[in-house]
Amino acid sequence: MQEAVEEKCDVLVIGGGPAGSTAATLLARRGWHVLQAEMDRHPRFHIGESLLPANVPLLEELGVLDKVRELGVLKLGADFPGAGSQPNVFRFRRALGDTPPYAFQVKREDFDAMLFRHARESGADSREGLRIDNVELLPDGVRAFATGEHGTLEIRARYLVDASGRETFMGNALKIKRKNPKHQSAAIFAHFHGVERRQGEDAGNISIYRFEFGWAWMIPLPDDVMSVGCVCWPEYLKQRRGDAGQFLLETLQRIPEAAQRMRAATRCSPTHVTGNYSYQCTATCGRHWIMAGDAYAFLDPIFSSGVHLAMDSGARAAKLVDTVLREPGRESALQRAYARRVNRGLRTFAWFVYRFNSNTLRQLFAHDSPPWDLDRGVISLLAGDVYDGGRVRRKLHLFKMVFAVAGLMNLPRHVRDLRHRRRQARVEFSGGNTAQDRH
């Protein structure tokens, strides 16, 4: 048996996605010896191609904003179903506060690879093809055992950042990962050429469509590529028989506006199917370790929150680790503050995610001129302002009150929506073909 090679570092970062590369970059800049382990090799396909305006300041802080401009499509808003055949466009320039009025749509294989290279250029020891197999928690740090192309490693680190994404390394290792009891869905998606794009300043918008079994997205990407997918009730996706690509096209035919845009489309990627992906761990961190991004929780892609939550938590985790390595006595207090912030952002998105397919929210989102400028609070949510904006929180609280009143005015239907969502949350879907679904 080959003896493991021993290595030491200050911080071990598991994962080469946006959360991991953000944390690795910022920690390396602070002078720490960072070993970043990505088990795959870039570029690799990943869903979650729509960024939020709240990403922009962090991209600027990292020094990659110009690179993102080069590889992305400018996104000025989000299209949701309107009262008629035309979409209701939520433009980011109407957001409250000083959130930038734009974001980008990116191919994640290009975006993630760029962030990973940038972490390496910033001084991190960022390695591909290095899989962390096991981690032991020690009084003075962690010991990890890894497998790479040159054999096995034993890595001693003072701190661990778990940014392993849906692999949820620490969540599985500590058995603290839990299925979300309030929300479950399954998704089917692919890339296409030839999909009709929106015109003018709306050409880069994400388009959201609803249908009786869920909702669909269209995300314009560079090189005439459109990311197209449907997030469905698990009960519906379990009906799939045969070819996944054909099932996706048949599902899109249920949405006249989407079907119209797909008339000349040709698929240019495999069709991916994944399910039961809404989960949360019971802890964000512990002694000498912390989670960031999807390693801790994932809700639903409806509001394109994944990359923003990942990069924000990666940056916050880096700040925490930097402070704790210098002042160990502050670890518990800083971890409690980190957990509060991460969970506040998740709760804000979750309220809307849980109710998105309800008829009540559907009507409110279709209103193109709601009272009290309620749409500005929603636009701020869509822009990613879910942490610190007092004005945004007040608008969203008012929106929730209007939602409650509207629900009471049509109580029987409101109750039916609630019961249906709870029933779907109990449905298990096992027909996925992604790496995470095969675990």
Tertiary shape: globular
Query: Strand percentage, roughly?
Result: 25-35%
Helix content: 25-40%
Structural class: alpha+beta
Give the number of helices: 14
**Spans of 5+ residues with little confidence (pLDDT < 50)?**
none
How many domains comprise the coordinates?
Answer: 2
Looking at the overall shape, the CATH architecture of the largest domain is 2-Layer Sandwich
Per the CATH scheme, the topology name of the largest domain is: D-Amino Acid Oxidase, Chain A, domain 2
CATH class of the largest domain: Alpha Beta
Sketch the major β-sheet: 8 strands, mixed
Strand count: 21
Mean pLDDT: 89
The termini sit apart by: 27 Å
Radius of gyration: 22 Å
Describe this structure in words.
This protein is α+β, with helices and mostly antiparallel strands and 439 residues long. The chain folds into 2 domains: 5-49 and 107-179 and 280-348, FAD/NAD(P)-binding domain; 76-105 and 185-275 and 357-439, 2-Layer Sandwich (D-Amino Acid Oxidase, Chain A, domain 2). It is built from 14 helices and 21 strands. It has helices spanning 18-29, 55-62, 65-71, 108-121, 169-173, 234-237, 244-252, 256-261, 306-326, 331-355, 359-366, 374-382, 390-409, 411-425, and strands at residues 5-14, 34-38, 72-75, 77-80, 88-91, 103-106, 125-128, 131-138, 141-148, 151-162, 177-179, 186-193, 206-211, 214-221, 225-232, 266-267, 272-275, 279-281, 285-286, 289-291, 297-298. Strands 1, 2, 7, 8, 9, 10, 19 and 20 form an 8-stranded mixed β-sheet that branches. Strands 4, 5, 12, 13, 14, 15, 16 and 17 form an 8-stranded mixed β-sheet that branches. Strands 11-18-21 form a 3-stranded antiparallel β-sheet, with no helix packed on it. A hairpin with a 2-residue loop joins strand 9 and strand 10 (151-162). Helix 1 (18-29) packs parallel to helix 4 (108-121) and helix 1 runs parallel beside helix 9. It starts with a strand and ends in a 14-residue tail after the last helix. The model has no long low-confidence stretch (mean pLDDT 89).
